[in-house]
Amino acid sequence: MSWQEVIVETQSEAVEAVSNILMEAGAEGIQIDDAADVDSYEPADATVWVDWDVVEHREAGALVAGYFPENVNLPEVINDVQMRVNQLADFGLDATPGTVTTTAVKDADWATEWQKYYHPVRVTRHLTVVPKWEEYLPAQKDEQVIVLDPGMAFGTGTHPTTRLMMQALEIVIRGDERLLDVGTGSGVLGIAAKLLGASSVLGTDIDEVAVRSAQGNLDLNPIASDIKVMASDLLQDVPAQEFDIVVANMLAEVLVPLIPQVESVLRPGGKFLLSGIYQDKADVIVAKLETSGYVVDEKMKLGEWYGLIAHRASEDEK
């Protein structure tokens, strides 16, 4: 079987949006080569040092490739992807040059490419993400392993926004929390939350296709057997209940309408963790949080991306 590779040349700030565009267009998997990853690179073995002056790597911008079955209408896909990439400027994202090209890839070559780009990554002090084809033994007794299929959904621990959220989870989880993961993607944050001690996790994503993708990764991790995942446009279909922590790793343009909604599901004093915030949008998100009744406890930065830890203000704090 042959696959068709659709390649988008873009900028680091648009990587998540372009990846989502390709997945929604029907890509079976995504491959990312982002210059910004050098800034946030952490090897699984802390004793390994990488000399980036010697190792070949991308020095500017990003390439996002989507893999499509040979039977799809490729011209239609390319036109749709190009149109949506061009529209990213309307959301304040620099996607330049935004060129969309294609090439044919043999199935065996594609498998080789996945294994070339995805290896175990020690994301935080306690959490390591391991692709499902790798055999990996934890280096320390308190190291927890998350097994993922990197082809199933975007957000597998290597991008700075996912790293920031996993670090934030380590900071706020004390044990037995009820957590809502809005826009769960690969499901990696929900799995991380369970490993860190959350008692229950509900994940949501935009449609049933995304939900099935997340479920595939949950099934690879026994700790995630009781995580529930459902289709919902933001909080629209989330059952009435109260959470201790709400996590949202998505574009700033989506966070803005989400922020006022979170009060309906987050207990007073509960933690709200946000990422997907490019550096030029951080002040906007902080201002929206503060006007919506939240106190920002911590700002985290990795490369050009921000993560925020906030809490819902009590009556005494308002």
What value does the average pLDDT take? Answer: 85
Name the shape in a single word: globular
Name the CATH architecture of the largest domain: 3-Layer(aba) Sandwich
The rounded Rg comes to 19 Å
Number of strands: 14
| Class per helix and strand makeup | alpha/beta
**What is the CATH superfamily of the largest domain?**
Vaccinia Virus protein VP39
- Strands ordered across the widest β-sheet: 10-9-8-11-12-14-13
**What can be said about the biggest beta sheet?**
7 strands, mixed
Reading the helices and strands in chain order gives: EHEHEHEHEEEHEHEHEEHEHEE
Number of helices: 9
Stretches where pLDDT is under 50 for at least 5 consecutive residues are 47-55
Distance between the termini: 61 Å
Structural domain tally: 2
| CATH topology grouping of the largest domain | Rossmann fold
Beta fraction of the residues? 25-35%
User: Can you tell me the CATH class of the largest domain?
Assistant: Alpha Beta
Helix content: 25-40%
Descriptive overview:
- This protein is α/β, with parallel strands linked by helices and 318 residues long.
- It folds into two domains: 2-117, Alpha-Beta Plaits; 122-317, Vaccinia Virus protein VP39 (Rossmann fold).
- The protein is built from nine helices and 14 strands.
- The strands form three sheets. The protein has a seven-stranded mixed beta sheet with strand order 10-9-8-11-12-14-13, sandwiched between helices. Strands 2-3-1-4 form a four-stranded antiparallel beta sheet. It has a three-stranded mixed beta sheet with strand order 5-6-7, covered by helices on one side.
- Helix 5 (160-172) packs parallel to helix 6 (188-196) and helix 8 (252-262) runs parallel beside helix 9.
- The radius of gyration is 19 Å and the shape is globular.
- It is found in: Cytoplasm.
- One of its GO terms (cellular component) is cytoplasm.
- This is Ribosomal protein L11 methyltransferase.
